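Table 4 source record.
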Amino acid sequence: MIMLVGPVGAGKTSLLNALQQNCRKADKTQSICFTDGAIDTPGEYAQIPRFYSALMVTAAEAKVVLIVQDATDFRMALPPGFAAMFSRPVVGVVTKLDAPGADREKAKLRLMQAGIKEPIFYVSAHTGTGLSELSEYLSERGCK
């Protein structure tokens, strides 16, 4: 099982739909949602410290935590060292590579500031770029 965490609008649900080859339109995630081997979390849980405990407890159900960063959003949405709160392996995923103004390096920097180490995957849920590499990585860890 994987758990997706990241700020509002990072593309967590779209990424999950793409990984699961689900053609559903991504709607705003209102609460922690368990679906087909994955846990989708609302962006507010990553941005509001009072929800961190819910993320930490829920992560115990996951084999891998994916922290998602939008390649067009350069705000510091997650605090420094954010990834260290998880007791599971944490992987960075940069989304929206196909969007105008996407900057892989700035997005990678934001993930690194949040405490992510390699690997970091670069994907587009809309074009499929990078999804096979991420899927293969997750399969090797028993997440599919």
